[in-house]
């Protein structure tokens, strides 16, 4: 059985390979070629933690991600994970992979897929709300699919915003100035109440909201949710997205339905919101890439 730590995973995973692999995984999910149940989550309230179980089967592989999210971590990453791979024909254990980097990169890669679908192919202005791991990974992934003429950054901690700006070339701004006029707005700040107000968003902005996961957590206000809403999984979104549950906003499509041509692109003259939650078939697709590359 192959065992790969994060350093070894990093050697075998790039956005250039991951983005097309995830596009195919989303298509297979939305067309019924792969299967997964909703994730199971065990709360650990005494440490402000959650532990999730995320299984899926796709083709010749079964994948199970075990993910721990401890938001009070300061010395360690807030997200820790392992991904176990098994043969779907015999049940034989094949590999155990560190899943922290896979979680980080597949989250940003799916946002990049949505960005390529829902934004024009021209230099764009990007606003990133948040300054942590996902802010950096999203910027790297979006630069693979779009030319960015300006990157704006915001963090609730000015020191972190300035550090992110020095590292990436972003312009640190107050949140309203970062959002106004931006073609793409990415929400990756750790929040449980609405952070992104619709009154600052351009009518045709593309918004990727990937920070608030859970039925009681939100990152978009009611005005921001007046948009074409696209998700990875309808079933997951209706159970795990407070933004959708609280507002009752109708889901326009799954990403895989649009990629497969089952549903057309949303109207270009209306704001589009991609509400990302992360699903198990994405982790399996990323782990498959790493496993097959490492096995060679």
Key features?
296 residues, 27% strand, 10 helices, Rossmann fold, ornithine cyclodeaminase, domain 1, alpha/beta, globular
Please provide a written account of the structure.
The chain is α/β, with parallel strands linked by helices and 296 residues long. The protein folds into two domains: 2-102 and 281-295, ornithine cyclodeaminase, domain 1, CATH 3.30.1780; 104-278, 3-Layer(aba) Sandwich (Rossmann fold). It is 35% helix and 27% strand. The protein has helices spanning 6-11, 15-30, 100-118, 133-145, 158-168, 175-179, 234-240, 242-247, 255-259, 280-295; strands spanning 2-4, 34-35, 40-44, 49-58, 61-70, 79-87, 93-98, 124-129, 148-154, 171-172, 184-187, 206-209, 228-231, 251-254, 272-275. Strand 4 (49-58) and strand 5 form a beta hairpin. The radius of gyration is 18 Å and the shape is globular. The mean pLDDT is 97.
Would you summarize the structure shown here?
With 296 residues, this protein is of the alpha/beta class. The chain folds into 2 domains: 2-102 and 281-295, ornithine cyclodeaminase, domain 1 (2-Layer Sandwich), CATH 3.30.1780.10; 104-278, NAD(P)-binding Rossmann-like Domain (Rossmann fold). It contains 10 helices and 15 strands.
